């Protein structure tokens, strides 16, 4: 139905989270009929993701490609370096930061276990988390598993509990407030603060 450039656009954009083929088609025509400058700006920011962004060597949060190896959390001496908050994704970290309650460090896992596949997902930054704790055993006192209260979040948390147990650090999970099936990313500041403050130790 559509000519090749539009079809290709739809194929690529429909794969993005939250965008289906119909929205992709609307986007394609909106961009095509709009000013050229909008398309060029989009091209520039997409290239910037490759060129100007990379991940922190410690927590795997995104940093600017400016020669510094650590992000502004890991590199900040006024943060609490004894506590590591494990999150599924960068946008969860942003929500926790906005809540203003948490002043420790983070670890971005890059996903969760799948409910359909029992294998340990290879792309998760699990070995990196273990290495990080092993390398600074005296420094890390608590690991907060701030994973969404979903089946996938539970599977991941249970695996992490077993994985972290030998390291003898205190392991906690978010407490009350977040309804089952919800996503940390979309929690409001008050709920998230409450869940962080009422976090429970896993023994
Ligand atoms: Zn970092």
TrEMBL record:
Q: What does the UniProt keyword field contain?
A: DNA damage, DNA recombination, DNA repair, Metal-binding, Zinc, Zinc-finger
What's an example Gene Ontology biological process for this entry?
A: DNA repair
**Alphabetized GO MF terms:** DNA binding; zinc ion binding
Q: Which Pfam families match?
A: RecR_C (PF21175), RecR_HhH (PF21176), Toprim_4 (PF13662)
Domain Toprim, by residue range, is 82-179
Annotated PROSITE patterns? TOPRIM (PS50880)
Q: Which Gene3D superfamilies match?
A: 3.40.1360.10, RecR Domain 1
Question: InterPro entries under this entry?
Answer: DNA_Rcmb_RecR, Rcmb_RecR, TOPRIM_dom, TOPRIM_RecR
Q: What does this protein do?
A: May play a role in DNA repair. It seems to be involved in an RecBC-independent recombinational process of DNA repair. It may act with RecF and RecO.
> Record's family?
Belongs to the RecR family.
In Swiss-Prot or TrEMBL terms, this protein is called Recombination protein RecR
State the species of origin.
Candidatus Azambacteria bacterium GW2011_GWB1_42_17
């Amino acid at each position: 139905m559509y000519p090749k450039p539009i079809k290709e656009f739809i194929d690529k954009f429909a794969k993005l989270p939250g965008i289906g083929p119909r929205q992709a088609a609307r986007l394609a025509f909106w961009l095509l009929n709009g000013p050229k400058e909008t398309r060029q700006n989009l091209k520039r920011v997409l290239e910037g993701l490759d060129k100007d962004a990379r991940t922190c060597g410690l927590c795997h949060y995104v940093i600017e490609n400016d020669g510094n190896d650590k992000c502004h959390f890991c590199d900040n001496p006024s943060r609490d370096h004894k506590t590591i908050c494990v999150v599924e994704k960068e946008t969860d970290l942003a929500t926790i930061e906005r809540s203003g309650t948490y002043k420790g460090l983070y670890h971005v896992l890059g996903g969760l276990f799948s409910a359909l596949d029992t294998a340990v997902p290879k792309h998760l930054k699990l070995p990196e988390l273990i290495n990080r704790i092993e390398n600074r055993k005296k420094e890390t006192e608590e690991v907060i598993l701030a994973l969404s209260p979903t089946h996938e979040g539970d599977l991941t948390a249970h695996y992490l509990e077993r994985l972290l147990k030998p390291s003898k650090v205190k392991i906690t999970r978010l407490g009350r407030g977040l309804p089952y099936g919800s996503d940390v990313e979309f929690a409001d500041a008050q709920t998230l603060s409450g869940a962080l403050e009422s976090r429970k130790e896993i023994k």
